[in-house]
Amino acid sequence: QVHLSESGGGSVQPGGSLKLSCEASKYTASPYCMAWFRQAPGKEREGVGTIDADGNTAYADSVKGRFTITRDDAKYTLYLQMNSLEPEDAAMYYCATDKRGIACYSGSWDLTHWALDTWGQGTLVTVSS
């Protein structure tokens, strides 16, 4: 089973940047479809972006053009570069695997449609002046 651990969260001012990391345990046979999602207090989980095994990415409209997902399979690490952060981006951020690829290929940002297998404990992002 893959274990995931997110890091890199913190507090930034609006317009600032953060880079989140998600380290996977080394006990994985092959790259998966992976995703970032977030949850703000009192709100539903929200899909942020996905990356498939070939490096193809997709983003929710709310973050498109500001967030970038990359992966380094040699280091078993997924990244989320977040630029031009807005107060609405404040949330706990999680990375997750989807072995069936539904998150990567369904075109849906509704997490109830995804088939997430594993996610980490999350890393907190705060955006305020």
Please specify the SSE layout and strand pairing.
Blueprint: E1 4-7, E2 10-12, E3 18-24, E4 33-39, E5 46-51, E6 57-59, E7 67-72, E8 77-82, E9 91-98, H1 102-105, E10 118-119, E11 123-127
Parallel strand pairs: 2-11
Antiparallel strand pairs: 1-3, 3-8, 4-5, 4-9, 5-6, 7-8, 9-10, 9-11
Total helices: the number is 1
Q: Which class of secondary structure composition applies to the elements?
A: mainly beta
The biggest beta sheet is recorded as: 7 strands, mixed
Radius of gyration: 14 Å
Using the alpha-carbon principal axes, give the shape.
globular
Any overview of this molecule?
The chain has 129 residues and is mainly beta. It has one helix spanning 102-105, and strands at 4-7, 10-12, 18-24, 33-39, 46-51, 57-59, 67-72, 77-82, 91-98, 118-119, 123-127. The strands form two sheets. Strands 2, 4, 5, 6, 9, 10 and 11 form a seven-stranded mixed sheet that branches. A four-stranded antiparallel sheet has the order 1-3-8-7, with no helix packed on it. Strand 4 (33-39) and strand 5 form a beta hairpin. The mean pLDDT is 92.
Characteristic terms for this protein:
four-stranded antiparallel beta sheet, 44% strand, 129 residues, 1 helix, seven-stranded mixed beta sheet, mainly beta
Tell me briefly what this model is.
By secondary structure, the chain is mainly beta. The chain is 3% helix and 44% strand. It is globular, with a radius of gyration of 14 Å.
